[in-house]
Please model this.
Amino acid sequence: MAAKLIDGKASLEVRALSRRVLGWRKKRNWSLEDLKEIVGFSTAKLSQLSSAVIRCSPMDVVKIASACGVPDDEVELCVQASHRLGDPPPSSRWRSGRRPRHPAGR
Model:
């Protein structure tokens, strides 16, 4: 899942969530390799999540938070933030089941 980009950079909200997730790991003094062994993600994915190259899905947040022993109330707030940052809903034209019309009848 790509992060929401503004002028080629992740939005402030995506970066804030990524910093929070990175903070959980750093608080434990764990390397990416340490966290990788616990949650089962690749170090590349963990690095991209931490630097907001890709956004954290709600499940990513739960897995990492669980591994780091994060309190439930903080996990809930971060999961809610991750839901808000999700991909935008499909266009209403696509929801109707009809394909959008292209100019010149293509």
